[in-house]
Amino acid sequence: MVGQSDSLIDKLVQQLRDESPVARRNAAGALRLHGERAVCAISQLSELLADKDARVRAEASNALKILRRAAA
Description:
Blueprint lengths: L6 H9 L5 H13 L8 H6 L6 H18 L1
């Protein structure tokens, strides 16, 4: 699937920008579960480290740990 768009991952990345902190947190958690498939979301997840909601920041941090390992 190299070079092909992944619609699920694309939708989750869009949810990272939702106005609802619950939606952003859930999207980050879902991306974490997809591992290597979701490494394209690392930059968007990194932006959430500055989110105003502490739970969103924590979930983004957890997701980044997993996805950075998967990307290595």
